[in-house]
Amino acid sequence: SVPLVNHGTAPGRDAIRYRSVTASGSYVTGAEQLVINQSVNGTEGFYVLTPLRTAGGQLLVVRGFVAAKSDGTPPAKIADAPTAPVRITGQLQTPSSTKDGAAELGSNLIGSINPAEQVARRGAATYDAYVTLAGGQPGTAGLTVLPDPDLSNPAGGAYEWQHFAYIIQWYLFALLAL
Which residues contact 142 (CB under 8 A, 6 or more apart)? Predict the structure, then answer.
């Protein structure tokens, strides 16, 4: 269970990350933000972040991705979120603890997804996590859906033989030190 910001201990990264979640509510119109410095399939652009008002509080939802214009700025028009109540499915993500830079970046741009900063600015009860939508969900129309994470290598990029090589390397270093 994910608590609201300032209402319990935030879940650890491994406790919730990539877990499938379903939520119902209505997107908050006029509260959309763009997360800068994002890349999808080698294209630079922005995540489209829209709060979803649920019965328990607001859930930050990355509805998808939009490519930057050639000058690095956001496109002039971004597909609107549905105005009717929706039921969404996506993957939970752990939030950033770094400042989101909203005051410095201006407009509707942020540098990270930090629910605590959202609460401070908006005053709305907000869950201490965010969701990336799966394809075909309400709100993804007109946006590039984020690719599923590659969970085939839980070692984070290193393969098992590399771990074995590091073990041998450190034993050799220990022998040299003696």
Answer: 78, 79
